[in-house]
Write a structure and sequence with these properties.
Layout lengths: L10 H43 L7 E7 L2 H4 L7 H5 L3 H12 L6 H8 L5 H12 L7 E7 L2 H8 L4 H5 L3 H6 L1
Antiparallel strand pairs: 1-2
Helix pairs in contact: 4-6
Length: 174
């Protein structure tokens, strides 16, 4: 090494420094690529999870044309809120379902038909009529929630364990 040359200006030091900078850039690019791959995999996994679980946030509904007949929903005949509260809304659902499925004949089949609807469907009709008493004596189309068993069977395509909870007649109706 000459007296005017320092260790920083030596050619081999410059070559090693260039090599170190090149390796540093390669490392940063590889780290960014790895991070991008990890984020992509995470997004794909979350997307698959959300797609697979989306059915859990939906509910099967059955469309019925319900008729709010006075004898069924207004037993006192005065259209008072108390009388509307005492109405037989399950019978309203039964009558509408029988209109939709006229092939239902026996008492057992009628019972199985009504079990396709959620127990909350009658409460929904009651709430609807008490908040809109002008519907008394009229008809309207509503989507009523299916029972939990019917919902699960419908989501599974009526196959597997979920479909076993329904009777063959109920499966035929769906």
């Amino acid at each position: 090494m000459s007296p005017t040359q320092t260790w920083q200006s030596r050619p081999e030091t410059a070559r090693r420094l260039q090599q170190r900078h090149r390796r540093n850039r390669l490392f940063r690019h590889l780290a960014a690529t790895g991070l991008l791959l990890a984020v992509t995999a995470l997004v794909m996994m979350l997307g698959a999870l959300l797609t697979a679980s989306s059915e859990a946030f939906t509910e099967t509904r059955i469309k019925l044309t319900v008729r709010y007949d006075r004898p069924l929903v207004d037993p006192r005949g005065d259209a008072s809120p108390e009388s509307l509260e005492e109405g037989d809304y399950t019978a309203v659902i039964r009558e509408a379902a029988l209109q939709l499925f006229p092939q239902v004949a026996s008492r057992t089949e009628r019972r199985e038909l009504i079990r396709l609807f959620s127990p909350g469907a009658a409460f929904r009709l009651k709430e609807r009529l008490t908040s809109h008493p002008e519907l008394l004596g009229n008809s309207e189309e509503l989507w009523l929630a299916a029972s939990a068993d019917a919902d699960q069977a419908f989501k599974s395509g009526l196959t597997g364990k979920e479909g076993e909870r329904l009777t063959p007649f109920q499966t035929h109706l769906l």
